[in-house]
Write a structure and sequence with these properties.
Blueprint lengths: L7 H5 L3 H10 L1 H18 L7 E9 L4 H4 L4 H11 L7 H10 L2 H11 L2 H4 L4 E2 L4 E2 L7 H12 E5 L6 E7 L2 H39 L4 H23 L5 E5 L14 H31 L2
Antiparallel strand pairs: 1-5, 1-6, 2-3, 4-5
Helix pairs in contact: 3-12, 7-9, 10-11
Length: about 290
């Protein structure tokens, strides 16, 4: 905290012992100031728009076809790669997590949810149904706020589960978005898996028709089997990439995650107490300087 030029020389003339004595002499005034400042800080926290967090707990869906194909990686890994076949057991899980945090998915999600008004309530006029002063958020602004302030992913390293949270001023919207983000991610991952498997099948069928080598034909058959299995699972498994363990519910009105009212009160009390102590010390030092010959 900066000290003005007329205060600094006076403070330099006071020892730490004198400083403590002055503060102790005015301890009641400083304590009263801290209580009043803390109360003002606590009350001011109610002027801040509260934010609520809703979380859904999910578990990445098990995919065992990758494990069964690991034995082909050594001899026919290049063939699988050319066909676009993922033979790694963690391929789907890693892809789902990366896509969940991607800019492309965030934009699609916000478009489907018409989420700009929920992201930027301070710019939106509910009465006129227009953006205030024409300040419509850009796609980059929307992604930055969504990525940094709204969406959070907390992995559980022991169980492998994921907690996907949405933090918004509207409690119902927060819970709705938390559940919808999992639904839309599963839909997108399912559609992508089906499309990629169909492309892989067409490639593998062409390779099968062009080779007479028994081992290669057997390998292609195993790869084709895995792709047909992927399409089957994608069509019958609604929760394709992420399985919901505990869906999000609407948080209670009296349980916002922000503002931290105790922090407001403590910060205000600290500032108030320090300001009063500085005032008393400055006044005492000036009195001492006027008494000096």
């Amino acid at each position: 905290m900066a000290v003005s030029d007329d205060v600094a020389p006076a403070l330099r003339e006071i020892s730490l012992l004198q400083l403590a004595e002055i503060c102790w002499r005015h301890k009641l005034g400083i304590a009263a100031g801290m209580l009043i400042s803390g109360a003002i800080g606590f009350a001011s926290s109610y002027l801040v728009t509260p934010l609520y967090r809703a979380s859904v707990v999910v578990m990445p869906s098990a995919q065992d076809e990758g494990v069964s194909l690991l034995g082909l990686a050594g001899r026919f890994g290049s063939l699988a790669s050319a066909a676009g076949v993922d033979i790694q057991p963690q391929g789907l899980r890693a892809e789902a997590l990366e896509y969940l945090s991607s800019r492309a998915f965030a934009r699609e999600f916000l478009e489907r949810e018409a989420g700009l008004t929920a992201l930027f309530p301070e710019r939106w006029s509910a009465s006129t149904k227009k953006w205030k002063d024409g300040l419509e958020p850009t796609p980059n602004e929307a992604f930055r706020r969504f990525d940094k302030n709204v969406r959070s992913v907390f992995p559980n390293r022991k169980s492998g589960a994921l907690s996907i949270s949405m933090t918004l001023a509207n409690r119902e919207t927060a819970a709705e978005w938390a559940n919808d983000v999992v639904t839309q991610l599963n839909e997108k991952m399912r559609d992508r898996a089906i499309e990629e498997s169909r492309k892989s099948i067409r490639f593998l069928q062409q390779e099968l028709a062009n080779t007479q080598h028994v081992d290669v034909r057997l390998a292609i058959g195993r790869l084709l089997e895995s792709q047909f299995k992927t399409i089957m699972l994608a069509n019958v498994r609604e929760q394709y990439a992420l399985r919901v363990i505990d869906p999000a519910v609407v948080p209670d009105r009296d349980e916002p995650v922000r503002p931290f009212r105790a922090v407001y009160a403590i910060a205000a009390a600290t500032v108030g107490g320090f300001s009063l102590a500085l005032l008393f010390v400055t006044r005492a030092s000036r009195q001492e300087s006027t008494r000096a010959p």
